[in-house]
Amino acid sequence: MTLVRFELLPRDPSQTDFEWFGDLQALILTALCRHSDALSVMRPVDSRDAFLPHVLVNRSVCLDKLGRLDEAVDCQHEALSLSRERGLQFGELVCLENLAATESRRGNFEDAQKVFVEAERLSSDMRNSREGDIRSTIPVLAADHAYLQLEMGKYAAALQLVAFGLRELKGPRGGWTGVLIALEAAEVYGRIGQSQRALKFIQDVYTSELLQSDFLRVRRAIALAGSDRVPFHEQLDTLTTALQLTFTLGTLYQRTRVLIALTALHIEMDERDNADEALQEARTLSKQCSLGALRPRIALLQGKLAENDRNKLRYLVAAHRMAKRLPLPEITAEAGFLIARIKFAGGSTVDAHRYLHKSVQISLNLAGQIPTRARNSYLKIAWRKEAREMLRLVEEQANSEEMVRSADRRGAESYFKAVYELTVALGKADNVNEFTEVLQGSMSRILKRGFIIYLTARDKEESFESQITYDSKVSSPLCQRG
């Protein structure tokens, strides 16, 4: 969510009526999420314009929503610099909030985190300020920061920020800010396994007149996506409608998220052709709009849809690498599990174990931040459960193979030691009788080393085992294996 105003737009005495009404019209259109229309009526400005920061903020909001993120960031930095230069604290706060949200979408999580912290520090200093609409800004800032923390796997921090935003919310929850925060809270709770609570937030705002807004209808569809309490056909209808609305709005970030949600849903419904069509469009948009935060998720879905293991691995390894860098631990864990499943099926037990161990470890660490009552639901998600079961199977197989390798090593050591002793002894024999005695003694000692029987069998010398009598202490499973 992105703030669209500093305060009720003031009027510069030097402005003509036409200029002032033009600024006001652009502000209203931006607030109504008609971003293309707002950009078309924004007037050219120069550095002497008293309200240049206001105009730049609105312009940056429109650019952001229309997917022109690089331009939006440049505009936000310019607005931020001017706000500081002119002592507009509330303007500075809005710029910081917008900048952090945009950098999050670009996948610059470290930069976004720093800007969010700076914005929160400033909002704390301004808590009792009468400049601008500070009381509505603080909950919005908390909700946007909560989503970044959610993506980065910092669930405890995300939950704290959502709770703080809801507490700070002034006025009716059915207002614009209230609806936005409720939908943000729904997404946070849904992702951590509290689907019932998430659905409750969505139902609480369902009757709000503001849900007639196309922008909020799309936002609601995204919040509902993937819920295990909403039937597939209902999710499909909601997301299909939302996709059409994004064409009207021109909100490309929203459209990309809707397409990703549709792809995941079509995969669940085993509709591969529809999934592939939606995913290709999402991939194109993510590149066009520099949506770095969404690219690992798109690569993960490409891996799921690929026709053969070679292509699956190519996409999944890319998803794993990108997600690890950002970081997006949920994507890292799921991609790691899918890579391990392919490796294990191909006989690469060591590689499978490495990816599985890390995947399960990430999931358990994330679950540790979730309230106890919801932890089991989070861990019971199908792929997380399968990852834990597969890890146990791989470890059992690895332990079994290690026992065999250990037996091989001990057997080999015993064999060569016995051969060495026999060679030395035979070199000292002076006649045939002494040679025979030495040979019989050495063979007796060799046959008491059970692993020699196993080794000779592995060398396909089974006839040797059938012709001799060996000590009863020989390990029978190993002998039978030969």
What does the model show?
The protein is mainly alpha-helical and 482 residues long. Among the domains are: 81 residues, Alpha Horseshoe (Serine Threonine Protein Phosphatase 5, Tetratricopeptide repeat), CATH 1.25.40.10; 76 residues, no CATH class. Helix content is 76%, strand content 0%. Helix 3 packs parallel to helix 5, helix 4 packs antiparallel against helix 5 and helix 12 runs antiparallel to helix 13.
Pick out its properties.
disordered N terminus; 24 helices; Serine Threonine Protein Phosphatase 5, Tetratricopeptide repeat; 482 residues; mainly alpha
Quick structural overview:
The chain is mostly helical and 482 residues long. It has helices at 17-31, 35-41, 52-65, 69-85, 89-106, 109-125, 134-151, 155-168, 176-191, 195-204, 214-224, 232-249, 252-268, 272-288, 295-305, 309-325, 329-345, 349-367, 372-379, 382-428, 432-447, 450-458, 462-467, 476-481.
